[in-house]
Design brief:
14% strand; Aspartate Aminotransferase, domain 2; four-stranded mixed β-sheet; 13 strands; Aspartate Aminotransferase, domain 1; 408 residues; seven-stranded mixed β-sheet; binds pyridoxal-5'-phosphate; 13 helices; 2 domains; alpha/beta
Length: 408
């Protein structure tokens, strides 16, 4: 298998730097590697092509959204026909009501829904609803838990933030019930909410599932102290359980934040919640010029129906399990220990018992041969990934391990 060249991508990156700070910004910037692609030319199903015309099996799915694969015909058709009728208009579209109804029917904890564009819109709104409902200020979150880019969500000291942005944020360790209970007891009259993803998926570390009984205890403590329980399902949403990832772990939150995969790449996010918080959700000032665009809402309905019809969560789970065991077996043949953590449909990969640079080198060698992965972030399975893709991934993985054996 020949190794890809990325000349056009890197030439365009230099040109981009003249007119865009950093050339490419945000989380896409951190993914840029000297030997990797930077700009895509087209995408279809589980694949994209870079501007040097190299084809990739995409194990990132645009960091989650492409859950049914790129350019899914039913989803695109639903969006297109709504664009034909009108997208952002001076009135809301009935499709908004249809989408809210779809979510209320599909998601166990949902009795209402509100819509934004990015996951960060829904996590911000969730916290505002919790504050409005409780009259309390503080937010408890898990260390390294990512909820978006608003200053309060960022690590202290990041450029452009001020220390007071995070004044009301208290941090606990994942799965640490003792410290969680301690913080609640010490600050219960100040804490509005606990916000957490359904399992811990930080960057640059193995992902961790909830310990047995963790969520039941957290949920009971929140109830006891009058604290709103928010599940940030922006990343894992619809890849574990269509009814909400919390269902898989046997508990019911007050609010759930969705984003990423909800409309298969059309810009949309949602906050859903219980009737107890409906009044607070109505009182909070939450809006945006683009929040009412109807085409992404039509795309979301089509996405959710297709996910349900195709039993997508189970399929992605099975595929992720096969990918995990095949990669572990392949690594073992070459004498490497390979770890895939997190849920099967969103695996975080790590080559263990070697220096980090060896792990990154393996990822680079895979990318150069057409399997797009990241060394520091969980991956995403879609329903478009095929058995043929799996066979290619394993062939590429073998070539990459062969190179590692030579170089290290
Ligand atoms: C768990 C989680 N919450 C919130 C967000 C923020 O979503 P967005 O980038 O769409 O604002 C992300 C994005 O990666 C996320 O993974």
């Amino acid at each position: 298998m020949s190794v890809y060249k990325m000349k056009k991508s890197h030439n365009l990156l230099e040109k981009a730097k003249e007119v865009i700070p950093g050339g490419v910004f945000g989380h896409y910037k951190y993914a840029i590697r000297d030997t990797g692609p930077v700009f895509f030319s087209k995408a279809k199903g589980a694949h994209f092509w870079d501007i040097d015309d190299n084809k990739y099996i995409d194990l990132m799915c645009a960091y989650g959204p492409a859950i049914l694969g790129y350019n899914h015909p039913e989803v695109d058709e639903a969006a297109k026909s709504q664009y034909g009728l009108g997208n952002t208009v001076s009135l809301a579209s009935p499709v908004m009501v249809d989408l809210a109804t779809t979510l209320v029917e599909m998601v166990d904890a949902a009795e209402w829904a509100l819509f934004g564009k990015n996951g960060g819109d829904s996590t911000n709104l969730a916290v505002m609803v919790a504050r409005a409902a409780t009259g309390k200020e503080k937010i408890v979150k898990v260390r390294d838990g990512y909820h978006g880019a608003t200053p309060w969500m960022q690590e202290k000291g990041r450029p452009g933030t001020v220390s007071s942005d995070a004044n009301h944020v208290l941090t606990v360790e994942w799965n640490d019930l003792e410290s969680f209970e301690e913080i609640l007891v010490n600050h219960s009259d100040e804490i509005a909410c606990f916000i957490s993803s359904p399992y811990n998926h930080p960057v640059s570390r193995d992902n961790e599932l909830p310990a047995e009984g963790y969520w039941q205890k957290v949920s009971a403590l929140c109830k006891q102290h009058g604290i709103v329980l928010i599940v940030d399902d922006v990343r894992a949403g619809f890849r574990i359980n269509l009814a909400g990832s919390n269902v898989a772990y046997g508990f019911t939150p007050d609010l759930i934040c969705f984003g990423k995969a909800i409309a298969n790449g059309y810009p949309l996010s949602a906050l859903v919640g219980s009737n107890a918080l409906k009044e607070a959700a109505e009182e909070v000032y939450f809006t945006g010029t683009q929040f009412f665009s109807a085409a992404p809402m039509a795309a979301a309905i089509a996405t959710l129906l297709e996910l349900k019809k195709s039993d997508a969560a189970n399929k992605m789970n099975d595929y992720g399990k096969k990918l995990k065991s095949s990669l572990i077996e392949t690594a073992d043949e070459f004498g490497y220990k390979f770890i895939a953590s997190g849920v099967p449909a969103m695996p975080y990969f790590r080559l263990a018992e070697v220096e980090t640079k060896v792990h990154f080198s393996w990822i680079d060698e895979c990318v150069k041969r057409g399997v797009y992965m990241l060394g520091y972030h969980n991956h995403f399975i879609s329903t478009a990934h095929s058995e043929e893709d799996l066979a290619t991934i394993i062939q590429v993985a073998k070539e990459a391990f062969t190179i590692l054996k030579k170089n290290y």
